[in-house]
Automatic annotation (TrEMBL):
InterPro entries: DUF2851 (IPR021272)
Protein's name according to its UniProt entry: DUF2851 family protein
Pfam families listed in its UniProt record: DUF2851
Amino acid sequence: MKEDFLQYIWEHKKLPQAPLLTTEGKTVIIKDYGKLNLLSGPDFLYARIEINGQLWVGNVELHIRSSYWYAHHHETDPAYDNVILHVVWEDDIAVHRRDSTPIPALELKGLIKGDLLERYQKLFSDFSIKFINCEKEIATTNDFLLRHWMERLYFERLEQRTKIIFDLLEKLKFDWETVCFIMLAKGFGQAINSKSFFQMAQALDYSVARKLQGDATQLESVFFGMTGMLEEELPDIYHTKLREQYAYHKRKFGLNALSVPRAEFFKLRPSNFPTIRLSQLADLYSRNGALFNALMKADTYEELHLLLSCSASSYWEEHYTFGKPSRKVVKKLSPAFIDLLIINAVLPLKFCFARCHNAENHEEIIALISSIRAENNNIQQHFKRLGLSFENAMESQAILQLYHKYCKENRCLKCAVGVKLLSGK
Protein backbone atom coordinates (compact mmCIF):
# COMPACT_ATOMS: atom_id res chain seq x y z
CA MET A 1 0.00 0.00 0.00
CA LYS A 2 1.30 3.44 -0.99
CA GLU A 3 0.12 6.89 -0.01
CA ASP A 4 -0.63 7.82 -3.60
CA PHE A 5 -3.45 5.22 -3.51
CA LEU A 6 -5.07 7.16 -0.68
CA GLN A 7 -4.56 10.37 -2.67
CA TYR A 8 -6.21 8.73 -5.67
CA ILE A 9 -9.20 7.65 -3.56
CA TRP A 10 -9.64 11.14 -2.11
CA GLU A 11 -8.96 13.12 -5.30
CA HIS A 12 -11.27 10.95 -7.42
CA LYS A 13 -13.95 10.71 -4.71
CA LYS A 14 -13.85 6.90 -4.50
CA LEU A 15 -15.18 6.66 -0.94
CA PRO A 16 -18.32 4.52 -0.47
CA GLN A 17 -21.72 6.22 -0.31
CA ALA A 18 -22.53 4.65 3.07
CA PRO A 19 -22.35 6.99 6.10
CA LEU A 20 -18.75 7.68 7.03
CA LEU A 21 -17.56 7.66 10.64
CA THR A 22 -14.36 8.82 12.31
CA THR A 23 -12.52 6.24 14.40
CA GLU A 24 -14.30 7.80 17.38
CA GLY A 25 -17.73 7.17 15.81
CA LYS A 26 -18.53 10.72 14.68
CA THR A 27 -20.40 11.15 11.40
CA VAL A 28 -18.48 12.57 8.44
CA ILE A 29 -20.16 14.29 5.50
CA ILE A 30 -17.78 15.58 2.81
CA LYS A 31 -19.13 18.77 1.24
CA ASP A 32 -15.93 19.58 -0.72
CA TYR A 33 -12.87 17.33 -0.98
CA GLY A 34 -10.59 20.36 -1.43
CA LYS A 35 -7.83 21.11 -3.87
CA LEU A 36 -4.76 18.90 -4.36
CA ASN A 37 -1.69 20.69 -2.97
CA LEU A 38 1.30 20.34 -5.31
CA LEU A 39 3.63 22.21 -2.93
CA SER A 40 4.74 21.49 0.62
CA GLY A 41 2.15 21.23 3.38
CA PRO A 42 -1.09 19.27 3.74
CA ASP A 43 -2.20 17.08 0.84
CA PHE A 44 -5.53 18.84 0.14
CA LEU A 45 -6.43 22.46 0.80
CA TYR A 46 -9.74 24.31 1.35
CA ALA A 47 -11.84 21.23 2.09
CA ARG A 48 -15.34 21.59 3.62
CA ILE A 49 -16.28 18.70 5.88
CA GLU A 50 -19.19 18.29 8.31
CA ILE A 51 -18.23 16.30 11.41
CA ASN A 52 -21.03 15.40 13.83
CA GLY A 53 -23.17 18.18 12.43
CA GLN A 54 -20.50 20.92 12.62
CA LEU A 55 -19.05 22.31 9.37
CA TRP A 56 -15.27 22.62 9.25
CA VAL A 57 -13.29 24.41 6.53
CA GLY A 58 -9.60 23.62 6.27
CA ASN A 59 -7.05 21.09 5.06
CA VAL A 60 -6.85 17.30 4.79
CA GLU A 61 -3.71 15.23 5.37
CA LEU A 62 -3.29 11.62 4.17
CA HIS A 63 -1.04 8.90 5.60
CA ILE A 64 -0.81 5.12 5.45
CA ARG A 65 -0.65 5.07 9.25
CA SER A 66 -1.69 7.90 11.52
CA SER A 67 1.62 7.58 13.40
CA TYR A 68 3.35 8.97 10.30
CA TRP A 69 2.04 12.36 11.47
CA TYR A 70 4.70 12.27 14.18
CA ALA A 71 7.30 10.54 11.99
CA HIS A 72 7.04 13.53 9.63
CA HIS A 73 7.05 16.01 12.56
CA HIS A 74 3.77 17.62 11.55
CA GLU A 75 2.97 18.22 15.22
CA THR A 76 5.58 21.01 15.27
CA ASP A 77 4.81 22.50 11.86
CA PRO A 78 2.39 25.47 11.77
CA ALA A 79 1.48 24.57 8.17
CA TYR A 80 -0.58 21.70 9.62
CA ASP A 81 -2.51 23.71 12.22
CA ASN A 82 -5.53 23.93 9.91
CA VAL A 83 -5.86 20.19 9.23
CA ILE A 84 -9.49 19.29 9.94
CA LEU A 85 -9.38 15.58 8.99
CA HIS A 86 -6.63 12.97 9.01
CA VAL A 87 -7.39 10.36 6.31
CA VAL A 88 -5.42 7.15 6.94
CA TRP A 89 -5.38 3.55 5.85
CA GLU A 90 -4.81 2.43 9.42
CA ASP A 91 -5.40 4.52 12.55
CA ASP A 92 -2.73 3.29 14.96
CA ILE A 93 -2.34 6.33 17.21
CA ALA A 94 -4.20 9.48 18.22
CA VAL A 95 -2.90 12.63 16.53
CA HIS A 96 -2.88 16.20 17.87
CA ARG A 97 -2.15 19.67 16.49
CA ARG A 98 0.48 21.99 17.94
CA ASP A 99 -2.06 23.34 20.44
CA SER A 100 -2.78 19.75 21.60
CA THR A 101 -6.30 19.63 20.13
CA PRO A 102 -7.10 16.22 18.60
CA ILE A 103 -7.56 15.73 14.85
CA PRO A 104 -10.40 13.43 13.77
CA ALA A 105 -9.27 10.38 11.79
CA LEU A 106 -11.08 8.66 8.93
CA GLU A 107 -9.76 5.09 8.51
CA LEU A 108 -10.07 3.66 4.99
CA LYS A 109 -8.92 0.12 5.70
CA GLY A 110 -12.41 -1.21 6.26
CA LEU A 111 -14.06 1.03 3.68
CA ILE A 112 -12.15 0.31 0.45
CA LYS A 113 -12.93 -3.20 -0.72
CA GLY A 114 -13.89 -5.12 -3.83
CA ASP A 115 -12.85 -4.27 -7.38
CA LEU A 116 -10.94 -1.06 -6.67
CA LEU A 117 -8.60 -2.69 -4.15
CA GLU A 118 -8.18 -5.73 -6.39
CA ARG A 119 -7.28 -3.57 -9.39
CA TYR A 120 -4.76 -1.64 -7.29
CA GLN A 121 -3.15 -4.81 -5.97
CA LYS A 122 -3.04 -6.30 -9.46
CA LEU A 123 -1.34 -3.19 -10.86
CA PHE A 124 1.43 -3.34 -8.28
CA SER A 125 1.85 -7.11 -7.94
CA ASP A 126 5.19 -8.66 -8.88
CA PHE A 127 6.43 -5.39 -10.40
CA SER A 128 10.03 -6.44 -9.81
CA ILE A 129 9.83 -8.89 -12.73
CA LYS A 130 7.97 -6.58 -15.11
CA PHE A 131 9.21 -3.97 -17.53
CA ILE A 132 6.31 -1.73 -16.45
CA ASN A 133 3.41 -2.44 -14.08
CA CYS A 134 0.67 -2.21 -16.72
CA GLU A 135 2.48 -4.06 -19.48
CA LYS A 136 -0.43 -6.45 -20.07
CA GLU A 137 -3.01 -3.67 -20.27
CA ILE A 138 -1.34 -0.57 -21.74
CA ALA A 139 -2.01 -1.56 -25.37
CA THR A 140 -5.74 -1.78 -24.58
CA THR A 141 -5.87 1.85 -23.45
CA ASN A 142 -8.22 4.12 -25.39
CA ASP A 143 -6.25 5.61 -28.29
CA PHE A 144 -7.61 9.14 -27.76
CA LEU A 145 -6.66 9.09 -24.06
CA LEU A 146 -3.20 7.73 -24.85
CA ARG A 147 -2.44 10.31 -27.58
CA HIS A 148 -3.66 13.17 -25.38
CA TRP A 149 -1.50 11.88 -22.50
CA MET A 150 1.48 11.65 -24.85
CA GLU A 151 1.15 15.33 -25.73
CA ARG A 152 1.03 16.28 -22.05
CA LEU A 153 4.07 14.11 -21.34
CA TYR A 154 6.04 15.73 -24.15
CA PHE A 155 5.41 19.23 -22.82
CA GLU A 156 6.24 18.04 -19.33
CA ARG A 157 9.59 16.80 -20.65
CA LEU A 158 10.06 20.09 -22.52
CA GLU A 159 9.36 22.04 -19.33
CA GLN A 160 12.07 20.10 -17.50
CA ARG A 161 14.58 20.81 -20.26
CA THR A 162 13.91 24.53 -20.13
CA LYS A 163 15.13 24.86 -16.54
CA ILE A 164 18.76 24.84 -17.67
CA ILE A 165 17.94 27.51 -20.29
CA PHE A 166 16.25 29.82 -17.79
CA ASP A 167 19.19 29.37 -15.40
CA LEU A 168 21.59 30.38 -18.18
CA LEU A 169 19.44 33.33 -19.21
CA GLU A 170 19.43 34.67 -15.67
CA LYS A 171 23.18 34.18 -15.35
CA LEU A 172 23.89 35.80 -18.74
CA LYS A 173 21.40 38.66 -18.46
CA PHE A 174 19.15 37.25 -21.18
CA ASP A 175 21.79 37.13 -23.90
CA TRP A 176 19.85 34.73 -26.12
CA GLU A 177 22.59 34.31 -28.75
CA THR A 178 25.06 33.19 -26.08
CA VAL A 179 22.55 30.79 -24.52
CA CYS A 180 21.79 29.38 -27.97
CA PHE A 181 25.52 28.79 -28.58
CA ILE A 182 25.86 27.01 -25.22
CA MET A 183 22.84 24.78 -25.81
CA LEU A 184 23.89 23.86 -29.35
CA ALA A 185 27.42 23.09 -28.16
CA LYS A 186 25.93 20.81 -25.49
CA GLY A 187 23.85 19.11 -28.19
CA PHE A 188 26.89 18.56 -30.40
CA GLY A 189 28.57 16.79 -27.47
CA GLN A 190 25.74 14.25 -27.14
CA ALA A 191 25.89 11.97 -24.08
CA ILE A 192 29.65 11.41 -23.84
CA ASN A 193 30.92 14.95 -24.46
CA SER A 194 27.90 17.09 -23.56
CA LYS A 195 29.50 18.17 -20.27
CA SER A 196 32.83 19.03 -21.90
CA PHE A 197 31.24 21.01 -24.76
CA PHE A 198 28.74 22.66 -22.41
CA GLN A 199 31.49 23.82 -20.06
CA MET A 200 33.65 24.92 -22.99
CA ALA A 201 30.87 27.08 -24.41
CA GLN A 202 30.35 28.71 -21.01
CA ALA A 203 34.05 29.24 -20.31
CA LEU A 204 34.53 30.82 -23.74
CA ASP A 205 33.11 34.32 -23.66
CA TYR A 206 30.79 34.36 -26.66
CA SER A 207 32.13 37.79 -27.61
CA VAL A 208 35.37 35.98 -28.49
CA ALA A 209 33.48 33.56 -30.74
CA ARG A 210 31.82 36.55 -32.41
CA LYS A 211 35.23 38.10 -33.15
CA LEU A 212 36.44 34.84 -34.72
CA GLN A 213 33.15 34.00 -36.44
CA GLY A 214 34.30 34.64 -39.96
CA ASP A 215 37.03 31.98 -39.83
CA ALA A 216 36.13 28.35 -39.05
CA THR A 217 39.80 27.43 -38.48
CA GLN A 218 40.14 30.11 -35.80
CA LEU A 219 37.01 28.80 -34.10
CA GLU A 220 38.33 25.24 -34.32
CA SER A 221 41.56 26.26 -32.62
CA VAL A 222 39.67 27.73 -29.66
CA PHE A 223 37.16 24.86 -29.41
CA PHE A 224 39.89 22.20 -29.61
CA GLY A 225 42.24 24.06 -27.29
CA MET A 226 39.66 24.59 -24.57
CA THR A 227 38.59 20.94 -24.62
CA GLY A 228 42.16 19.72 -24.12
CA MET A 229 42.92 18.39 -27.60
CA LEU A 230 45.90 20.67 -28.34
CA GLU A 231 47.96 20.12 -25.20
CA GLU A 232 50.52 17.70 -26.66
CA GLU A 233 52.89 18.46 -29.53
CA LEU A 234 52.18 16.22 -32.52
CA PRO A 235 54.01 15.79 -35.87
CA ASP A 236 51.00 17.08 -37.78
CA ILE A 237 50.97 20.40 -39.66
CA TYR A 238 47.30 21.15 -39.05
CA HIS A 239 47.56 20.31 -35.34
CA THR A 240 50.58 22.59 -35.03
CA LYS A 241 48.72 25.40 -36.79
CA LEU A 242 45.72 25.11 -34.48
CA ARG A 243 47.96 24.84 -31.44
CA GLU A 244 49.77 28.07 -32.36
CA GLN A 245 46.52 29.88 -33.05
CA TYR A 246 45.06 28.76 -29.74
CA ALA A 247 48.14 29.91 -27.84
CA TYR A 248 47.77 33.34 -29.46
CA HIS A 249 44.03 33.59 -28.71
CA LYS A 250 44.58 32.33 -25.17
CA ARG A 251 46.99 35.21 -24.48
CA LYS A 252 44.95 37.82 -26.36
CA PHE A 253 41.55 37.04 -24.83
CA GLY A 254 42.67 35.59 -21.49
CA LEU A 255 41.00 32.24 -22.16
CA ASN A 256 40.70 29.95 -19.15
CA ALA A 257 39.78 26.31 -19.69
CA LEU A 258 40.51 24.99 -16.18
CA SER A 259 36.82 24.17 -15.59
CA VAL A 260 36.41 22.34 -18.91
CA PRO A 261 36.61 18.52 -18.84
CA ARG A 262 38.79 17.00 -21.54
CA ALA A 263 36.86 15.79 -24.58
CA GLU A 264 36.52 12.00 -24.76
CA PHE A 265 36.89 9.56 -27.67
CA PHE A 266 36.19 6.35 -25.73
CA LYS A 267 33.05 4.39 -26.75
CA LEU A 268 32.33 6.74 -29.64
CA ARG A 269 31.96 5.90 -33.31
CA PRO A 270 34.47 7.83 -35.44
CA SER A 271 31.71 10.03 -36.89
CA ASN A 272 30.92 11.17 -33.34
CA PHE A 273 34.53 11.90 -32.34
CA PRO A 274 34.86 15.31 -30.65
CA THR A 275 37.25 16.41 -33.41
CA ILE A 276 34.51 15.97 -36.01
CA ARG A 277 31.71 17.45 -33.92
CA LEU A 278 33.68 20.55 -32.89
CA SER A 279 34.80 21.16 -36.46
CA GLN A 280 31.15 20.96 -37.56
CA LEU A 281 30.18 23.38 -34.78
CA ALA A 282 32.90 25.77 -35.93
CA ASP A 283 31.61 25.57 -39.50
CA LEU A 284 28.05 26.23 -38.34
CA TYR A 285 29.05 29.39 -36.49
CA SER A 286 31.46 30.62 -39.15
CA ARG A 287 28.53 30.86 -41.59
CA ASN A 288 25.83 32.22 -39.27
CA GLY A 289 26.28 35.58 -37.62
CA ALA A 290 22.94 35.62 -35.78
CA LEU A 291 21.95 31.98 -35.58
CA PHE A 292 19.54 32.34 -32.67
CA ASN A 293 17.39 34.92 -34.45
CA ALA A 294 17.33 32.81 -37.59
CA LEU A 295 16.30 29.69 -35.65
CA MET A 296 13.51 31.56 -33.85
CA LYS A 297 12.13 32.87 -37.16
CA ALA A 298 12.25 29.46 -38.84
CA ASP A 299 8.86 27.82 -38.51
CA THR A 300 9.25 24.73 -40.68
CA TYR A 301 11.24 21.56 -40.32
CA GLU A 302 12.95 22.19 -43.68
CA GLU A 303 14.08 25.69 -42.68
CA LEU A 304 15.62 24.41 -39.44
CA HIS A 305 17.48 21.66 -41.26
CA LEU A 306 18.88 24.14 -43.76
CA LEU A 307 20.07 26.47 -40.97
CA LEU A 308 21.74 23.67 -39.00
CA SER A 309 23.41 21.95 -41.95
CA CYS A 310 27.20 22.07 -41.66
CA SER A 311 30.35 20.06 -42.41
CA ALA A 312 33.69 19.41 -40.81
CA SER A 313 36.61 21.27 -42.42
CA SER A 314 38.61 19.82 -45.33
CA TYR A 315 41.33 18.42 -43.04
CA TRP A 316 38.73 16.20 -41.35
CA GLU A 317 37.54 14.83 -44.67
CA GLU A 318 40.65 12.63 -44.54
CA HIS A 319 41.06 12.34 -40.76
CA TYR A 320 39.13 11.41 -37.62
CA THR A 321 42.02 12.14 -35.26
CA PHE A 322 45.12 14.29 -35.70
CA GLY A 323 47.93 12.76 -37.75
CA LYS A 324 46.08 9.57 -38.78
CA PRO A 325 44.86 9.76 -42.40
CA SER A 326 41.67 7.91 -43.35
CA ARG A 327 39.57 7.35 -46.46
CA LYS A 328 38.21 10.65 -47.75
CA VAL A 329 34.63 11.30 -46.62
CA VAL A 330 32.80 14.62 -46.52
CA LYS A 331 31.62 14.75 -42.92
CA LYS A 332 28.33 16.57 -43.10
CA LEU A 333 25.97 16.66 -40.16
CA SER A 334 23.49 13.84 -40.76
CA PRO A 335 19.73 14.55 -40.90
CA ALA A 336 19.27 12.31 -37.85
CA PHE A 337 21.80 14.34 -35.85
CA ILE A 338 20.13 17.60 -36.90
CA ASP A 339 16.85 16.11 -35.65
CA LEU A 340 18.49 15.58 -32.23
CA LEU A 341 19.69 19.20 -32.17
CA ILE A 342 16.16 20.38 -32.95
CA ILE A 343 14.67 18.14 -30.22
CA ASN A 344 17.23 18.86 -27.51
CA ALA A 345 18.21 22.48 -28.16
CA VAL A 346 16.11 24.36 -30.70
CA LEU A 347 12.60 23.46 -29.54
CA PRO A 348 13.39 24.10 -25.84
CA LEU A 349 14.83 27.48 -26.89
CA LYS A 350 11.72 28.29 -28.92
CA PHE A 351 9.51 27.29 -26.00
CA CYS A 352 11.47 29.51 -23.57
CA PHE A 353 11.60 32.45 -25.98
CA ALA A 354 7.83 32.40 -26.47
CA ARG A 355 7.22 32.15 -22.74
CA CYS A 356 9.52 35.09 -22.01
CA HIS A 357 7.50 37.17 -24.46
CA ASN A 358 4.14 36.00 -23.09
CA ALA A 359 3.42 34.27 -26.37
CA GLU A 360 1.83 30.89 -27.04
CA ASN A 361 3.66 28.58 -29.46
CA HIS A 362 2.35 25.12 -28.55
CA GLU A 363 0.94 24.56 -32.03
CA GLU A 364 4.26 25.48 -33.68
CA ILE A 365 6.15 23.18 -31.30
CA ILE A 366 3.74 20.31 -31.94
CA ALA A 367 3.98 20.81 -35.72
CA LEU A 368 7.79 20.79 -35.64
CA ILE A 369 8.27 17.84 -33.28
CA SER A 370 5.63 15.88 -35.18
CA SER A 371 7.63 16.43 -38.40
CA ILE A 372 10.56 14.51 -36.93
CA ARG A 373 10.72 10.75 -37.19
CA ALA A 374 10.34 8.76 -33.98
CA GLU A 375 13.59 7.80 -32.30
CA ASN A 376 14.44 4.15 -31.79
CA ASN A 377 16.11 3.00 -28.60
CA ASN A 378 15.80 0.12 -26.13
CA ILE A 379 12.99 1.71 -24.12
CA GLN A 380 10.90 2.43 -27.19
CA GLN A 381 11.53 -1.10 -28.48
CA HIS A 382 10.21 -2.47 -25.18
CA PHE A 383 7.01 -0.43 -25.55
CA LYS A 384 6.65 -1.55 -29.17
CA ARG A 385 6.75 -5.17 -28.00
CA LEU A 386 3.86 -4.30 -25.68
CA GLY A 387 1.81 -3.22 -28.70
CA LEU A 388 2.43 0.55 -28.84
CA SER A 389 3.52 2.36 -31.99
CA PHE A 390 5.25 5.72 -32.39
CA GLU A 391 4.53 7.88 -35.40
CA ASN A 392 6.85 10.78 -34.63
CA ALA A 393 9.42 12.25 -32.23
CA MET A 394 6.79 13.82 -29.98
CA GLU A 395 5.48 10.38 -29.14
CA SER A 396 8.92 8.80 -28.76
CA GLN A 397 10.00 11.67 -26.48
CA ALA A 398 6.78 11.32 -24.50
CA ILE A 399 7.34 7.61 -23.97
CA LEU A 400 10.79 8.35 -22.50
CA GLN A 401 9.15 10.77 -20.07
CA LEU A 402 6.51 8.18 -19.23
CA TYR A 403 9.06 5.46 -18.54
CA HIS A 404 11.61 7.49 -16.56
CA LYS A 405 9.25 9.73 -14.56
CA TYR A 406 6.26 7.44 -14.04
CA CYS A 407 6.88 3.74 -14.79
CA LYS A 408 10.32 3.42 -13.16
CA GLU A 409 9.16 5.37 -10.11
CA ASN A 410 5.89 3.40 -9.80
CA ARG A 411 3.90 6.64 -10.11
CA CYS A 412 1.05 4.78 -11.80
CA LEU A 413 -1.62 6.75 -9.98
CA LYS A 414 -0.22 10.00 -11.43
CA CYS A 415 -0.35 8.51 -14.92
CA ALA A 416 -3.42 8.79 -17.13
CA VAL A 417 -3.07 5.13 -18.13
CA GLY A 418 -2.78 3.95 -14.52
CA VAL A 419 -5.74 6.06 -13.40
CA LYS A 420 -7.84 4.70 -16.27
CA LEU A 421 -6.95 1.10 -15.44
CA LEU A 422 -7.67 1.63 -11.78
CA SER A 423 -11.08 3.14 -12.53
CA GLY A 424 -12.05 -0.05 -14.36
CA LYS A 425 -14.00 1.93 -16.98
